[in-house]
Design a protein that fits this description.
Elements lengths: L10 H31 L5 H23 L19 E3 L6 E3 L3 E3 L4 E3 L4 E3 L4 E3 L4 H28 L9
Antiparallel strand pairs: 1-2, 3-4, 5-6
Helix pairs in contact: 1-2, 1-3, 2-3
Keywords: Acyltransferase, Membrane, Transferase, Transmembrane, Transmembrane helix
Family: Belongs to the DHHC palmitoyltransferase family.
Protein name: Palmitoyltransferase
Amino acid sequence: MGQRIHFVVDPQGWCCMGLIIFVWLYNTIFIPKVILFPHYEEGNISVVAVLCYYFCSLFCIASLFRASVADPGKLPENPKIPITEREYWELCNKCNMMRPKRSHHCSRCGHCVRRMDHHCPWINNCVGEDNHWLFLQLCFYTQILSSYTLILDFCHYYYFLPLKKENW
């Protein structure tokens, strides 16, 4: 997996990233203040539930950062092609570079990416050979955090005892 940092200058991608960070901050501040801390003070939930929420939130934002700055598998300017593999390479008609057969040229990033899946505006980066696993981690942690928040909301409205007036 590539360890190079990769930034894309794309206004739509920056707006999507800003929206994600806003929603993450809102959920990290609002949900614990309204649901977790009052129910913890009244003894409805344990400290483990609060810590699990913060760990899920931390893993989610860390995986977002890692997927957004990881190199997706950008091809170098002058790739060294082994003589035995030249038949598996082709010329990109957009950037006039030699690339492997399963590579694709991203019009947003302006370069070819090995085994490109798609350009994701939510991470403002291409999903390719080198960061595909990081993108899947982001999807997994986002699903875990969303499910946990949904369960907490459900428990808050239908399972837990009503909050006392001072916590309400």
